[in-house]
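Write out the 3D structure for:
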Amino acid sequence: MGYILVCDDERSICQMLQIAFQNQGHRVETVTSGEQACRKIDSTLYDIVVTDVRMPHVTGMDVLQHSRRVSPDTLVIVITAVDDSEIPIEALNAGAFYYIRKGPKLLDDVLTAAALAMDRSHLRQQNAALKRDAAQRNSLENIIGESEAIRQLKQTIRTIATTNSTVIVSGESGTGKELVARAIHTCSPRSSDPFVSVNCGAFPETLLESELFGYVKGSFTGATTNKRGLFELSSGGTIFLDEISETTLSMQVKLLRVLQERCIRPVGGGQETPVDVRVIAATNKNLLQHVQDGLFREDLYYRLSVIPVEVPPLRDRGDDVVLLANHFLKKFAVQMSKNVVRLSPESLTAMKGYDWPGNVRVLENTIERAVAMSTEDELRVSLPNSGSSSMSSASGPGALGVVLPPGGVDLERYIADVEKSLLQSALRRSNGVQTRAAEILKLSYRSFRHMMKKYDLS
């Protein structure tokens, strides 16, 4: 059975359709104005919307267009008492599923159209599930949003996908850089070949080298067989180097050679192997600043930056927050078998005004947590740190608990003292285990080691 919204400024029509739909087992809500319908569509996932055309202020055509924009999977049935041959054409061209003229057979016509719409909806859902199971998680459809920034991003992906040029994808943590890389691969002529993803910040240098380039038997302790590296395994396809900024300078030399010569040499091997692979790298850091600081090679930077792609933060994507929130609500409600169908108006308002410092990843985690804890059909979302002060919400003098002395302060020395103190505290808490200390401070291991050297800590 479906979830149906009925919108008509005649209450008798709403009541008649509500009773008929409920008798068939559908869940039904009714409103008597276009404004109310649009607000409902913003916060609830309906299978079908039935709307009258002629209503004051916000018309049924406005409701249709709003539904197509905000909830494209919802099927809209348009009804009207006006005998105007232009209206059906206009409605169908705007994306209406069905058009019905009010008359003695209105109820039968609406119920028939709704049954057809539910059949269409079920077929669409089954088809979408099959496509997802066929490895479509890397397509453009997974970059959810209709903001201008996302439309431009998708157009950029379509344009550059047909080339073999190296791409650097930059953006804040949690914006979906790997989704962008997968979409580039899927839209490219290489889509039938492998897409291999590797997090460069998750491996020490020696292990990263063997993972990327492979090794030969006996090249190091434990190398009992030959092993092909990820560059060779992705030959013909695409390799995605995430957190490229975390690679060491010596590893950057090796990567530069691969980009220049299109050949790899396994660890301990003496023979080079040609590879045909497209390289897409990603970073949430300012690589140019890393170059100026001596942490990243300038020649590699320009090799990677042939085509730069910037992924916008969620705070710059307008109403995409609502689209994403509804997407995650539906996803987790199905996974957890929860009867959650809409977001509360208060939650929508709060989410639209939130800065989302962790971007889409934090939004997804927030909705997952809310769905898991929900016991009602309306979801109420508790935003991260919304109940306490935080760096993202602090404002005004002393908002972080710091008071500026009357005589001023040496800011660079003060920051250095704070950094050194935090490093020492993290080391004490982790009993000297540096990898754990780096995790406590939300730093990569390489960045942590750099700061240890900077402050001469051992």
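The longest strand covers residues 75-80.
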